[in-house]
UniProtKB/TrEMBL annotation:
Entries under Pfam families matching the protein: Filamin (PF00630), Glyco_transf_90 (PF05686)
Example of a GO MF term: UDP-glucosyltransferase activity
Record protein name field: Protein O-glucosyltransferase 3
Organism: Rhinolophus ferrumequinum (Greater horseshoe bat)
Encoding gene (name): POGLUT3
Bias-annotated ranges (Basic residues): 498-508
Catalytic activity: L-seryl-[EGF-like domain protein] + UDP-alpha-D-xylose = 3-O-(beta-D-xylosyl)-L-seryl-[EGF-like domain protein] + UDP + H(+); L-seryl-[EGF-like domain protein] + UDP-alpha-D-glucose = 3-O-(beta-D-glucosyl)-L-seryl-[EGF-like domain protein] + UDP + H(+)
Pathway membership: Protein modification; protein glycosylation
Stated role: Protein glucosyltransferase that catalyzes the transfer of glucose from UDP-glucose to a serine residue within the consensus sequence peptide C-X-N-T-X-G-S-F-X-C. Can also catalyze the transfer of xylose from UDP-xylose but less efficiently. Specifically targets extracellular EGF repeats of proteins such as NOTCH1, NOTCH3, FBN1, FBN2 and LTBP1. May regulate the transport of NOTCH1 and NOTCH3 to the plasma membrane and thereby the Notch signaling pathway.
Amino acid sequence: MRRLPWALLLPLQLVLLVVTRAPEAPVSAPRSLVWGPGLQAGVVLPVRYFYLQAVSSEGQNLTRSPPGQTLFKVVVKSLSPKELVRIHVPKPLDRNDGTFLIRYRMYETVIEGLKIDILYGDEHVAQSPYILKGPVYHEYCDCPEENPQTWQKTLSCPTEEPQIAKDFASFPSINLQQMLTEVPKRFGDERGAIVHYTILKNHIYRRSLGKYTDFKMFSDEILLSLARKVLLPDLEFYINLGDWPLEHRKVNETPGPLPIISWCGSLDSRDVILPTYDVTHSTLEAMRGVTNDLLSIQGNTGPSWINKTEKAFFRGRDSREERLQLVQLSKENPQLLDAGITGYFFFQEKEKELGKAKLIGFFDFFQYKYQVNVDGTVAAYRYPYLMLGDSLVLKQDSPYYEHFYMALMPWKHYVPIKRNLGDLLEKIKWAKENDEEAKRIAKEGQLTARDLLQPHRLYCYYYGVLQKYAERQSSKPEIREGMELVPQPDDNTSFCQCHRKRPSREEL
């Protein structure tokens, strides 16, 4: 059996019980596989995570959750009995395909290290026990790795991100003086949603341009989190906190486009794209009040494929006219489609005609076999979560995109539908008549999303954008008039002693 990557080491405290069901072929604890970034002490994330693949005694990977009551146990404790640390460990998530996702959030730093026992009955699973030699830092420990290449290697960051390469192809050089002159005038007016950042000596400074900059809490949060983990390059840039991408100049125009950084891109804009504030925030706040995040969704995908309701499903606000059309189609074809608007803002006059649907928990979406993804004001930010479920996604053709769309292909990872939804019913019928093919596309999409949307990959992506930007600056970034320091959050309740070599001010 080929070993999966990341098979290294991991922590946790508490005894965890994973309820699985005994398979037709019994689970072999030593043959089962354990891997993931949470098995490495050097991978510091808000929530650490790793995976477990149940393998039979014949060496076959189990592909479904087997019946019966069996117990996986995970025990995590400090290597030193003198170190007592707080670690929150929810129940492992059963992904319903023979694999399990185990998560934990550390609230203190461990100096000596951690020991993780993973047991199936009384037997150790895979290479258990796993030893994480300390120090193991928690999320709020301000202890950046001084060598970015070492940090990227530890996280197994991709050597190239196609979307980053494409975004910066328009900007072989970045003229900061031009940015300083033009951005406030073009985009920072009364209705602006722009934040001007400077990162200098791994400190974050900013000033807001315009009235609608409350979402800076999200960009602040991820930049501070990155700065605690790795030494960031010095750079000066503008983030657009609004929905729509801003820069529509063509490369051959004079003056040319400016590298505005946005959450969402479009076919007719030149903005540089970051992962959306939604997936960013859910990654940072996972297991701290956020219920929908890129990990939790994987263990809450509803019934198995064969037991899902054979209809397409949609719930959402009235942020695009096609969503209203979707509800009308649902009224006319209830046997194929269950669609409803949960809140009216843009088309309030339509509420009486179309009705208002009750809110439904996102995990309950996956009671249905097919999910309809229709744009909101821009790309629908629920799309990554839909892809991580095990329903077939019917995706509306769209000029808008998020950072990971380039890796997805129609008919391989999702089923495309026309912008005007003219072929939606036809595509639902096709899925019902071609159940095995629909299931295969759903699974391929899910597996690809699991890889692309791992939380550590988001950190890699953010750093990649900042790195590429910094390389192209034609002058040195400065702390401008009106900028304020964005301080690291206080974490006086947690122990954090940084053991990395701190660069001197001269090195910085």
